[in-house]
Structure formats: structure tokens, C-alpha cells
Amino acid sequence: MSDLFDFFKENENKLHERPPEQAWAKLEQKLERNRRPKRRGIRFMQLGVVALAILILLLAAGLVWYFVRKMG
């Protein structure tokens, strides 16, 4: 374990090095290329699924109410 601490003590000065600005620019370009466009359709699809689930639950409740009333 002391070897690890010695390693960090010996290389502490390298921890404070700053990469050149060109490296940051290159990284930002890569990130922009790899960024996926936002898909807005998913929100509406989720809303549609919720609305459909509520509609199915209301339909099921209506059917249960109808058959319970018909039998009783």
C-alpha cells in the first residue's frame, strides 16, 4: 500500500498539468458529433400510453359495474 502512496507523492506535480486548449476543442467536437438529437416523439408516446391505460381501466371498471348490476 505504501508503494501506491509513494507513486502519488512522486507524481503529484503531474496532477496539476493542464491539457492544451486544442485538446479541449478536439474533445468538444467529438462530443458534439456523438451527441444524439433529442426525440420529442417519445414524450407524446408516453402520454398516449398513459391515456390508453386509463381508458382501459375505465372500460374494465364499466364492464365490472355493468355485470355486477345485471347479476344483482
Question: Which secondary structure elements does this structure contain, and how are they paired or packed?
Answer:
Blueprint: H1 2-10, H2 12-15, H3 21-34, H4 41-71
Number of domains: 1
Helix content: over 70%
Mean pLDDT: 86
Number of H/I helices: 4
Radius of gyration: 31 Å
Question: In brief, what are we looking at here?
Answer:
The protein is mostly helical and 72 residues long.
Q: Can you tag this structure with a few keywords?
A:
72 residues; mainly alpha
Written account of the structure:
By secondary structure, the chain is mainly alpha-helical. It has one domain (2-71). It is built from 4 helices and no strands. The chain has helices spanning 2-10, 12-15, 21-34, 41-71. It starts with a helix and ends with a helix.
